[in-house]
Design a protein that fits this description.
With 619 residues, the protein is of the alpha+beta class. Helix content is 44%, strand content 19%. It has 20 helices and 21 strands. The two termini are 57 Å apart.
Length: 619
């Protein structure tokens, strides 16, 4: 519900009280332009909203939010737990200014031991757990997973090749030669012995390392007694490798089997949350986050907001160990337990090993925030220097850098990167497949025009009032006067010529350090060779070039694997593979008789006729 004619502030909020009851639910506070200021949940909507209607007793942050409120919206729920879950979904979707926002929320990698093959493989997995097998994680980063997989290969000699590679081998690969695989593909290990190695690896991932070592020691002694000295030596090497793995893992808490350790440090309106992942009594890495603090929220609110959003798309562990207590801890426990389908505890340890773990996370959070604030201050100075060099009205908060990549006009792509006060904003990067059929191959001016036209057309449609922080303060183009002129034409055509824009050309001999800056209607200029602003611009341009090249290579690689079969409706990856396996090539498929197409597994008579018609213009 909303009322555009209502007054703002306390009077506006007061006007909604007569329509509310004591139901649990979620409320939204909106400003005069209908932008969402805040999303909150309440056990009793009428009681919560009446608190905002009071003219005094609010923190400066809440008082500002109330003054800006011009209308409200409400959704009732059956329970307060449902309201909490809905609140977190809406916060992530709407990104209100006064809420705590988790800005980096990528999924975490796991280790998968496959369960659909006589000789299971072990590999990294990210995303939905839809494949059959056992999953272990989460790990804090791909690097943490790769290190663990490398260690597991040394100790347990499990295969990492795909099933098709496994089936196609006639002799062992290099991993067998360097003792990272037991060679099941060519029968160098029996199915029973390999299964025993898989069980040992899974016990290790479950934290039962002492049991694994004892079992290996018994096997080594048995091999030595049987005078199988080569096998005994191999088992000895595995025990040594396992001991090295345990020593390299760092923090391995004896009394905490499964927990996320969460430490928060807030300072100067900024916050860092450090999360350590403890699984199977082992430290599986840590990651730091810098949530947006909702214009000055208190630590308890920051931590509660972070936890609600962090576990919205992740399975919570059995325990969360926090550095600060949070409001409505029991409610959040209930919501997380409901999501996990088992009990989840939220603890604020006061002594012992758990307290030490939290202290470690808190120390890391404090040090990470100090580094981040230092980097932000340096970035601010560079942005000020860039504003001065380009005669801008003020420090640019959002810089968009554009580049193109192609080979003689083929697989052409445009790339846009974004940078601001906190460095590169990779979640805002965009790629553009160049579509202009009328473009001459290799026409860089035309490509850049198409990219900018599409970019600003979308901006105008999505944020015509320039209120959502999506519009750039500065465009940097990789190129000289010609590129700048081409881009300026588009900006005039789109009515956005008020946005500052400059081209960065390599300059004399195309040497780095001799870059020239080009602007519309002004003479080119260069910065001093050792000017930090010049190095900053070079980093921006190099990042745009890196992103453009990577996008182009991905498109080219996809094109290499493309076949005429991709154009046929009903022929997906599985049927395409079946056809290519049966006939050997797409060309052979195109020449095949209708009867031969019908003989392929998975190809129905109707689809066979469709494939035949596609290549023979029949019907």
């Amino acid at each position: 519900m909303s009322d555009q004619t209502a007054p703002t502030g306390h009077a506006c909020i007061q006007s909604y009280l007569r329509t509310l009851d004591a139901s649990p639910g979620v409320y939204r506070m909106l400003d005069a332009s209908q932008a969402v200021l805040y999303v909150g949940k309440a056990r009793n909507l009428k009681a919560r909203v009446s608190n905002y209607a009071r003219p005094s007793g609010h923190s400066p942050r809440i008082a500002r939010m109330i003054r800006e409120t011009a209308s409200m919206m409400f959704l009732t729920t059956k329970t307060e737990t449902e309201a909490l879950l809905l609140e977190q979904n809406l916060i992530k979707q709407l990104k209100p200014r006064y809420n705590v926002l988790l800005r980096d929320d990528k999924s975490f990698p796991n280790i998968l031991v496959t369960g659909d093959h006589p000789y299971p493989m072990i590999r990294k997995h990210r995303g939905a757990k839809s494949e059959k097998g056992s999953y272990y994680g989460p790990f804090a980063s791909a690097g943490a997973v790769n290190r663990t997989l490398n260690q597991l290969q040394k100790v347990f000699l499990l295969r990492s090749c795909t099933d098709s590679q496994f089936e196609g081998r006639s002799r062992p690969c290099l991993l067998y030669q360097i003792r990272r695989c037991s060679g099941p593909c060519v029968g160098h290990i029996s199915e029973a012995d390999y299964a025993a190695s898989v069980r040992d690896a899974e016990q290790f991932l479950q934290g039962k390392t002492t049991r694994v070592q004892s079992q290996l020691a018994r096997k080594m002694e048995g091999a030595a007694e049987a005078m199988e000295f080569e096998r005994a030596a191999a088992l000895r090497d595995r025990i040594r490798a396992l001991t090295h793995v345990q020593g390299a893992q760092g923090i391995n808490p004896a009394g905490v089997s499964e927990a996320d350790v969460i430490g928060l440090h807030a300072e100067g309106g900024q916050a860092c949350v450090q999360v350590f992942f403890i699984r199977a009594n082992q430290n599986w890495g840590n990651r730091d986050y810098y949530p947006k603090t909702g214009s000055g929220a208190e630590p308890a609110e920051i931590l509660a907001g972070f936890i609600g959003q962090f576990y919205e798309n992740k399975e919570p562990p059995r325990q969360l160990l926090l550095s600060d207590d949070i409001e409505e801890r029991a409610l959040l426990e209930e919501a997380l337990s409901q999501k996990a389908g088992r009990r989840v505890e939220i603890l604020v340890p006061q002594r012992g090993e758990k307290k030490e773990l939290v202290a470690g996370a808190l120390r890391n959070a404090r040090e990470s925030l100090a580094r981040k604030m230092s980097e932000t201050a340096t970035q601010g100075k560079l942005l000020d220097g860039l504003a001065e060099a380009l005669d801008l009205d003020g420090r640019p908060e959002r810089i968009e850098v554009y580049d193109n990549s192609h080979i003689q006009g083929t697989n052409a792509v445009g790339a846009m990167i974004v940078a601001g006060p906190e460095g590169f904003v990779k979640s805002q990067y965009r790629k553009f497949n160049i579509r202009g059929d009328e473009l001459t191959p290799g026409d860089d001016f035309g490509m850049m025009k198409e990219v900018l036209k599409r970019r600003f057309k979308r901006l105008i449609a999505e944020d015509p009032e320039r209120e959502k922080g999506m519009w750039p303060d500065l465009l940097l183009i990789d190129g000289g006067a010609g590129q700048v002129s081409a881009v300026h034409e588009i900006m005039v055509e789109m009515g956005v010529e008020d946005i500052a824009m400059a081209g960065v050309a390599k300059g004399i001999d195309r040497d780095a350090g001799k870059e020239e800056f080009h602007r519309v209607g002004k003479r080119p200029f260069a910065l001093r060779h050792n000017d930090p602003v010049l190095y900053f611009v070079q980093r921006l341009r190099d990042e745009a070039h890196r992103f453009a090249i990577g996008t182009h290579r991905a498109k080219r690689a996809k094109g290499v694997s493309a076949t005429p079969l991709d154009e046929i409706a009903g022929v997906g990856a599985t049927r395409k593979r079946a056809l290519l396996t049966h006939f050997g090539s797409a060309k052979a498929v195109s020449r095949a008789a209708l009867a031969d197409l019908k003989a392929v597994d998975g190809i129905s008579a109707g689809l066979a006729e469709k494939i035949y018609d596609h290549f023979h213009d029949r019907g």
